[in-house]
Structure formats: C-alpha cells, structure tokens
Specification:
By secondary structure, this protein is of the alpha/beta class. The chain folds into two domains: 205 residues, P-loop containing nucleotide triphosphate hydrolases (Rossmann fold, 3-Layer(aba) Sandwich), CATH 3.40.50; 168 residues, Rossmann fold, CATH 3.40.50.300. 42% of the residues lie in helices and 13% in strands. It is built from 20 helices and 13 strands. The strands form two sheets. A seven-stranded parallel β-sheet has the order 3-4-2-5-6-1-7, sandwiched between helices. The chain has a six-stranded parallel β-sheet with strand order 8-13-12-9-11-10, with helices on both faces. Strand 12, helix 15 and strand 13 form a beta-alpha-beta unit. Helix 2 packs parallel to helix 3, helix 6 crosses helix 20 and helix 15 packs across helix 16. The longest helix has 15 residues. It is globular and about 70 Å long. The C terminus is likely disordered. It binds adenosine monophosphate (AMP). Adenosine monophosphate binds next to helix 3.
Length: 453
C-alpha cells in the first residue's frame, strides 16, 4: 500500500488529504486506518510527529459521515488529550480533514473562560476534543453528555498518566456507553499503559511505530560538554553562527525558561517562553509569533512543548538535559518533521552526565560529541561505567572559582521550588480535575492558568 486511496478512504477525505499536501501515508496511518475503518479498536505506539492524528481522525470522520443520526447533533466522537496545545492542534486537524463534511467539532480546555465553550456545546457538536479537567468540569455542570459516544480516542496516554490524569480517565470511561470503538495512542508502552489499555480496549490491533527509528535517522544529534555557567554563551554563539530562524530551546524549569528569554533578549535575539505558568493568551501569542516567523526562538519546558507542531523547526537545543530520557526523544522530534532534516544540540554540564547515560541507553547509541567550541569541559563527560541518573553535586561545588557566575547559579537554586522539576505532581492541577471544587472555587470562568500544562 503506497497511497491514501488504497487504504479505503472516501473521495471526500482523499480531497482533504490532497489539499494538505500529503501524498504518502505515514507508517502509523498505513497500519491504523484499515482496521479502524473495519470497526476494530487500535492500540498505537506512536508519538507526535508520526502523523498519528490523521491516523485516527480520517477513519473516525469517514465512519461518522457514512451514517448520520437524525435530529439534534450529539457528541459521537470524544478525543482526550493531555495538554491544551495538543488538544487545539488535534481540533485544527479535524477542521482540515472534515472541510467537505457536515460534521461539527470543537476543542475545550481549562485556563480560559468556559462560556464560549458552553455556547458551542449548546448548539450541538459531533466531535469533541478535550483535556480531562475541563471535560469533567463541564460534565459535572451538566453541559456535556458523553453517553452516546461512538468513538473514544485517548491520545498521548503515557503523558496523561505522567500528569496524574488516571482517575479522571477512569471517571470518563465509566460515563461512556458500552458499545463504542476505542483508540489509544501512546509514545511509549510502559506496564501502566498496557494495564489501562486492557481495561477498555477490545481485541485491539496493535500498531507500533518505534520512535527510535524515526529520531535517530533524520536528525543530526550533537552533544557539547560544558560548564553550566557557559551554556548561555554557547547558545547565543550557535544561534548567531547558524543564523537560526526557527529553533526551540528546552529548559528544565519554567523559571529557567523566563530567565533565558531575558538573557537572549540582552544578546539581541528575539525569543518567547512557553510553559504552564503563562496565561493561555500568552502561550497562544508566543506560538503564533513563532509559527509566523516573527520570533525565531521559542524557549519551552517539556510539558508545554507537547503538541507543538510547527513544520520547519531546524534546530532543537537541549539547554538542560531532561531527567527523563524519553523527553529527549520527544524534544528532538520537534525538528525533522514532515520528512525534513534537523539538528539537535544537547548541552551537558557536570551535574547532567548521568542523564546523558540514560538517554544514550534509551536511544541505543552514543550521541556524537562536538568539542569544537570554546567552552568544552571534560569534567562533564560521563565516567566509564557511570550509571544513568543524576550525579550528586560535590559539596565543594559552590566554591567554584568562577565568581562571576556564582550568583547566577545560586539564584537558580533558590528559585527551584517555584517550578520544581517541571513535572506536575500527581493531581497537581487538581483544581482542573475536580469538578466540584472547580465550580465552588472559581465560578464558571476557569480561573487562572493552571500549573499543569
Ligand atoms: P501528528 O503526528 O499527527 O502530530 O502529525 C505531524 C505532522 O505531519 C502534521 O503537521 C501533519 O500535518 C503532518 N502529516 C500527517 N500525515 C502526513 C502525511 N501522510 N504526509 C505528510 N505530512 C503528514
């Protein structure tokens, strides 16, 4: 099978796919679309960037369009997504693919006023894309009925569990009708996901698109060893030397992202931060500026970056190495999308070499070292036989002779509590995930932006 026609898609969808410029289905599309069209459940191991949205959206749209119920519209397809950005992008894809169909879709998520969402729901919808907290909130208020859902899609299931959404997901599943088609997509397949899949998928077809193959091949990866205090200068140097027009920089903390944006600004590099402490408006504005080319550099934390789907990102900078090796794969997958190539730099200081060991174990190869820069520091290179994980900072580390940088490091340390590890605690944004408390505490307006991205 080499084209979309052979997958059994209708002419209406073929037109939409053609308008998007897709010529060849991606592996996850080739493997998922036919069984989904036959009505089977699918368990897909695929990350963002593999074309998985079309893999589930196209067959769902085709079946929904085939038999349309009479009377007022009701929610027939429910797509759950962990983050607002990803939810919005899924909805955008539904808009593109259903252009020639009379199917109404809408995205809802927390952190924004709920009233426009409620109005759209009242008019009637066929497809709802939602983050779990806001979905349960509006179900609790009686604005959403999911008892007639025919298609249930759980996207980025591993991230959902990481973010503490498991109880919310269980609550949602309990409210769904027994008879329905299920799809679960996850970038990784740890035991917890297999267990969750077992609770609601029926005789599912398993589709596995290994992230290792896709990342290692097309993306040029480089590791640079250096001191923490030199990271900013190396970043500025690379951005300027390589005239980066569309690059994303990953920091471990929200505070680190904010600080770096200011520092880049001082070096005349326009950048914007995107993370969970930014208001939805600020995040949308930053992403829009990045997409239209006005802001060449986006500084992001891991969770906020999920679902950033911008074609043409040429550079990914791992300014801080992630403490979860899988995040490295997700991060570098922001570049080399839609068949293009890209470069991913990783900065490793002497407290991060254990993380590097973990990353190299996961991707199954050593990342080539680039020591051809003024800040190369052999003290950051992993020791032979070093185990994955973090190396403890030596007790004397604070007394480093680099006086000019000490204040900066200490500032970073004292602020660490405010944004911890960028990984929300279980139930971290429980405001969003507890309908009753939500209503009591915030009225109907969704309140402040949450910490959970
Ligand atoms: P996703 O993994 O769903 O986030 O998709 C990643 C990107 O690939 C999106 O920008 C899609 O528009 C694009 N895409 C999806 N399917 C194809 C395809 N068959 N050919 C080219 N691009 C595609």
């Amino acid at each position: 099978m080499s084209d979309f026609q052979s997958l059994g898609l209708s002419n209406t969808l073929l037109r939409a796919v053609e308008a998007e410029g897709y010529t060849t289905p991606t592996p996850v599309q080739q493997q998922s679309i036919p069984p989904l069209l036959e009505g089977r459940d699918v368990l897909g191991v695929a990350q963002t960037g593999t074309g998985k949205t079309a893999a589930f959206a196209l067959p769902v749209l085709q079946i929904m369009n085939r038999k349309k119920p009479q009377g007022k519209r009701f929610i027939r397809a429910l797509i759950l997504s962990p983050t607002r950005e990803l939810a919005a992008q899924i909805d955008e894809r539904f808009a593109a693919y259903s252009e020639h169909m009379d199917l109404r879709h809408r995205v809802i998520f927390g952190g924004v006023n709920q009233n426009p969402q409620v109005r759209a729901l009242q008019k009637g919808l066929d497809i709802l894309v939602a983050t779990p907290g806001r979905l349960l909130d509006l179900i609790g208020q009686g604005h959403i009925d999911i008892t007639r859902v025919e298609f249930f899609v759980l996207d980025e299931a591993d991230r959902m569990l990481d973010m503490g959404f498991i109880r919310d997901i269980e609550k949602v599943i309990k409210l769904l009708p027994k008879q329905r088609q299920n799809l679960l997509f996850s970038a990784t397949m740890p035991k917890s996901i297999a267990k969750l899949a077992g609770t609601f998928l029926n005789n599912a077809v398993m589709v596995d698109v290994s992230p290792k193959e896709m990342t290692v091949d097309r993306i040029e990866q480089k590791i640079m060893f250096l001191r923490k205090a030199d990271k900013r200068r190396l970043l500025v140097q690379l951005i300027k030397e390589e005239r980066v027009k569309c690059g994303i920089v990953f920091t471990r903390t929200k505070h680190g992202a904010n600080r770096l944006v200011k520092q880049l600004d001082q070096s005349n590099i326009a950048a914007a931060a995107i993370h969970g402490n930014k208001s939805q408006g600020a995040r949308t504005k930053a992403l829009a500026g990045f997409k239209n080319g006005n802001i060449p550099i986006l500084v992001a934390t891991d969770i906020a970056s999920r679902g950033i789907d911008v074609d043409g990102i040429t550079h990914v900078f791992n300014y801080d190495l992630p403490n979860e090796p899988e995040s490295y794969v997700h991060r570098i997958g922001r570049t080399a999308r839609a068949g293009r190539s890209g470069i991913a730099y990783a900065f490793c200081d002497d407290t991060e070499s254990g993380y590097l060991v973990g990353i190299q174990q996961l991707i199954g190869k050593e990342i080539p070292v680039n020591s051809n820069h003024p800040f190369h520091f052999i003290g950051a290179i992993p020791k032979p036989g070093q185990k994955p994980g973090k190396i403890k900072e030596k007790s004397g580390a604070k007394k480093r002779p680099r006086n000019n940088n000490r204040n900066q490091q200490n500032r970073g340390r004292s602020n660490r509590n405010s944004d911890a590890q960028n990984k929300p605690r279980r139930g971290g944004d429980s405001k969003n995930s507890n309908p009753r408390r939500n209503r009591n505490q915030r009225g109907n307006h969704g309140g402040n932006n949450s910490n959970r991205d």
